Amino acid sequence: MRSKPATIKEIAQLLKISISTVSRALHDHPSIGLTTRQKVKKLASELNYEPNQTAIFLQQGRTLTIGVILPELSEAFFSSAISAIEDCAYKRNYTVLLAQSHDDEQKEKQLVEKMKNHRVDGLLVSVSKNTSSYQHFENLRQYDIPIVFFDRIPAMQNIHYVACNMEIGTIDAVSYLLKKGHRSIGMINGPATLSASGERKEGYIKAMIKNRLKFDPSLIVSCDLTETSTQAALDELLASKRKPTAIVTFNDYVALFAIKHATNLKLKINEDLEFVSYANLPLINYMESIPAASVEQFPYLQGQKAADILLDLLAQKHQGVTEQTAYYKIIIESQLVENSSMTGFKSK
Amino acid sequence: MRSKPATIKEIAQLLKISISTVSRALHDHPSIGLTTRQKVKKLASELNYEPNQTAIFLQQGRTLTIGVILPELSEAFFSSAISAIEDCAYKRNYTVLLAQSHDDEQKEKQLVEKMKNHRVDGLLVSVSKNTSSYQHFENLRQYDIPIVFFDRIPAMQNIHYVACNMEIGTIDAVSYLLKKGHRSIGMINGPATLSASGERKEGYIKAMIKNRLKFDPSLIVSCDLTETSTQAALDELLASKRKPTAIVTFNDYVALFAIKHATNLKLKINEDLEFVSYANLPLINYMESIPAASVEQFPYLQGQKAADILLDLLAQKHQGVTEQTAYYKIIIESQLVENSSMTGFKSK
DNA sequence: TAATGGTGCGCAAACGTTTGCCCGTTTTTT
DNA sequence: AAAAAACGGGCAAACGTTTGCGCACCATTA
Fold first, then answer.
1. Which residue, counting CA atoms, is nearest to the C1' of nucleotide C12?
2. Does the beta carbon of B45 lie under 8 angstroms from any beta carbon of chain A?
3. Architecture of domain B166-296
4. pLDDT tens digits for range B29-73
């Protein structure tokens, strides 16, 4: 029974008509008579005919496929994003070619090449953490393969991207804590190399200004996102003159490390010490001691937007729009979410 | 600069030689002289030539692409598995076409069709929860597209699969609790419709027999995996005559619900009431009150095995092995892991 | 009646490769 | 010196589609 799939050619031979007629009949082309059209369709379904996409790809110069390159599939943020991307692609009849860079610049470059060879119509990329040169992305320009970056944006000119701005979320977070009566608010920030750290710091400062409070730089400490580094950061904050009663942490992992450490120090979470964090982890719902509030970054939404933009771009291109000079730069505002009611806010 | 990619044909014209010569030269075919070979390669790299994969696919009848269909990309288990699959595929020069069924039988069927049309060389599937008919998978047989199922296995004959057997892990889990001195051990199991529930129950019973203890059916209660249902199950257990001092829960979500509820009831976790669960969640590392031990299901390993099997199958097929009658049926034994030392056991 | 227009379909090129087969030189063998 | 072998390379088919163009036939119109 190991039959090769039926082709348009076989149908033509069996019906003793030409290949082109079969093709047109299957596409309901007006110039084909009703009777032949029906005959063709009948036989096609009898033979279980399905068009060979690879042939169509070759012929049309497009593959209805988008490539997605991101650092780590198993990270909650990205798996949520890819889930959204796949949903979007599916809705618009595209397929997703997936690859992970493992934050390795070399691999990222290879993947871009591979995607190009596979003739993906467009690319969705969240850049590897330690990618320093962006030539591999620039190269794609001359082949007219559009790229939309999301979340991790390279320092390039004239690119499409969607990212999440942490500043407002941070302002809200700090304001939230101020409103709750805290007067000394600490921040365990990430490494200065990440632009996200800058946004958080800016937000913190702006919140202080906005509330006519004075900014104490010693209340912002950095960590490299590891557990030990987080513990050290917390220790430093707790030892400072103006010992904070609330802390904003760079992300949920840091928050959990800090909460764990604080608990060991016999501090009561949300009483002695209150936390606000940035939501990377969906599972925070299931925990007992959690940050009182989180700044949601909407991974699902980011993936969705990015995919939609790319697909729009491709649709334009297919309709013959030659050259667009405008670039999509979508900033999704982060949003403070109180964690008791978080369930209703699930990004999906 | 919007240049279309260079083709083998252009190279041939520029060098005034034939297309076939160029092709062979690029493949280091012995029948091409050194000088022409070098000329060809030089020009090729100058023109930034890259072979058009879609053309090669059409010509060779294979795409070096495997399709992956699973229920939910954003679930930790699957995102871990897909991460492994992508790694394997990459190593063996394959690419991954990804799609999620959202546990919808109809969509799953469409996806199988789509994958077929895209001419994937093979398929990796974790079946949708409520798929009842498997015809869409059977159909692929006649097109000689191999499928390897993983984790969620359909009730079909003659299939390749890799799955995780919970029985041994459960025996170990119960034995572990017995060894710690518990004499009344409860189980919050999943719905009877899931085969995984059966395995867990079997394991529980066997552990009792093995330790020459009598099995009390009232200590096993079911829940539908929701929070409220879990609470009810726990209440039921706590109200039973032989109030358990330890509980085995169906998965980590259930464990967390139960732990939360128990905490509210002023029970001390791991003192008044000890938990053992099944590890679906990588994040359990970050929590304070966690099950004392977990039965690890190795999602990364499952994905890896499944991908390797599929790729082996494809390699065989490509080397002309006509018909294999043997089917891979890989059972990965689950393994009990004490959670303090869990970090070292990370599946990856 | 002759010109016009519509209808229904076929021819063949094109997409970019790979590869079996053939053929003309040169080199080696006997 | 003649035959055989090796070398280097070209021709063309094939993979399965889509689509511009051309053509024959029949039915209108003037």
1. A20
2. no
3. 3-Layer(aba) Sandwich (3.40)
4. 988 989 999 999 999 999 989 999 999 999 999 999 999 999 999
